[in-house]
Amino acid sequence: MPAYRVDRLWPDPAPDLDLDEAFADLSLPPSPPGRPLVGVNMVTSIDGRAQLAGKAEGLSGRADRRLLQLHRVPYDAVGSGAGTLRADDFYSHLPADLAARRVAAGRPAQPTAVVIAGVGPVPTDRRWFGHADQARILVVGGGPAMGEPPGTELLVAPTDQPEPRWVLERLAERGIRSLLLEGGPTTNAAFLAADCIDELYWTIGARLLATDALPMIAAIPNSPWADHPREAQLVSVHRSGEELFLRYRFGGIGP
Fold first, then answer.
1. pTM (predicted TM-score)
2. What is the set of domains in the chain, with CATH numbers?
């Protein structure tokens, strides 16, 4: 595996760090009362677009792909919406070295994989369904019944579009204390509308698109933050070549 180098710009600036070492101690704040902690991990272009030809692939370089995996390490579960599964053949299986890091910390080798769908069809031929060593939870809306895919726990929500707080309650019942969302913009918007985003990991790829592709978070009708924006705390800034890796925290949780 190639070694990627980053500069830490803030806090405590330091040049030419090994990416894996710089993010080896990524720690999470305590979960909010009554639900798992929710982080969002996204990449956008400089002009804020989260899709290139309908996918996130191509918006950033290889260092960001490794960073995506490093961000998964401390989380109990990694999830996405079904749209990301359809577009990107999304999967959240960690490579052997990072699985070993989780085991050394007393955790399961793989985070629980979660996909949140509505009532539309779910493509069960994706790689997401193919890892026998990873627990999987598929959440679907309360439409026509579908069979439970092999090796996957099926949760059927009482609404056509599973409500984020209902999803988080079900995950908490299964001992999951933290969930990392990796898109897409519509799923991110649903969790923001439910006031359930606590951390944001944002890669700004050094590219301009000037398209009408979706942003990191889709527009929320009658957004409660339209006049009073949600405030964030900047936790860290790193640079890899021309790309920036930013971490923000919301809601005043944690140290």
1. 0.94
2. 36-210+232-250 (3.40.430.10)
